[in-house]
What does this fold into?
Amino acid sequence: MKTGALIAALLASALAARAEAQNCAGTSTGRVPLTDLGAGTYQGFAGGLYPAGSNVRPAAHESAGLSIAAQITPVNASGAPDAANGTIGFASLGMSNTTQEFSAFLPLAAADQALNSKVVFVDGAQGGMAAEQWQDPANACWTTFASRLASAGVAPAQLQVAWVKLTARAPNLTPSFPAGAQEQQAWIRQSVLNLKSKYPSVRIVYLSSRIYAGYANVSLNPEPVAYENGFSVKGLIEAQINGDPGLAYAEASPPAPWLSWGPYLWADGLGADNVVGGTPGRSDGLEWRCADLSGDGTHPSTQGRQKVAQLLLAWLKADSTSMSWVLANPTLGGTAPSGDGGSDCGLIGLEGIVLAIVVRFLGRIRA
It folds into this structure.
């Protein structure tokens, strides 16, 4: 065998071995996704994305979100409205999983002619930068974030929306619930407040929690930390809904943006039957296969990144608070899956899209 071919074969073997390193037997944890848990409880804490076990944004919060969304418009570098030449900046903020997933989202968004060309998407998320880093306003991740915006031609005053997906490294958390989830919540909260402080023009932040981590073979965010990250996000949003003054968004120069769930991404692996395409890990059909994760079972594979990217894009096109500015023609674009603009969008109940993603991106590819 020629040297080049031998090297290629060895590399392929190494990659294959790494791909098999996940715990592919970890197909289910038995935990119930927040969207299915509803009024049920997990260690005494109610499910649902929003208060009272509901997956629907409370009416007052929905109304406030719609009002704020109506203010999102193309602006110039000084923040003044400019319908002809202005920009609506939208950035991701988070850790390695977030940047991997948003990097897959960017070409999908660029190719989608239904989207408003005035929206400029920027990947501000960074590998190695978890909630512990973002909660520090002096951390270098903020310098890189600013540099990413500048490289994309987005001035600070043009950044108006962000997708935040953050968790903390499990070894840095109290190894019990709810203490660990509450620590994550505090760090995510401070990260969001830092974003608003540095970029007062940010009006809306959509939050997502982690994908499934039952296949993990490293200690970064294994189950149940990944699952419990959902309670961190839920707790933060509920605090704002319940009137936490530190998370006020409606006053003059508010300390926080308006917060909402974006797509909820966790499902219990393959579900209770442990069969691909059988009883899913979530009632709307979403499931996570071993091939959706890379060799460490923690970071998404190329297939998994595409899955999240598709779900995020579908959610943005359907949610009541994003349709008005993310779509080129909102009256002809996506509509919320239910009659309530802020309700079932958070469920990602788009079974056909999920099926299409699975079919299209079959195959195990190293992250």
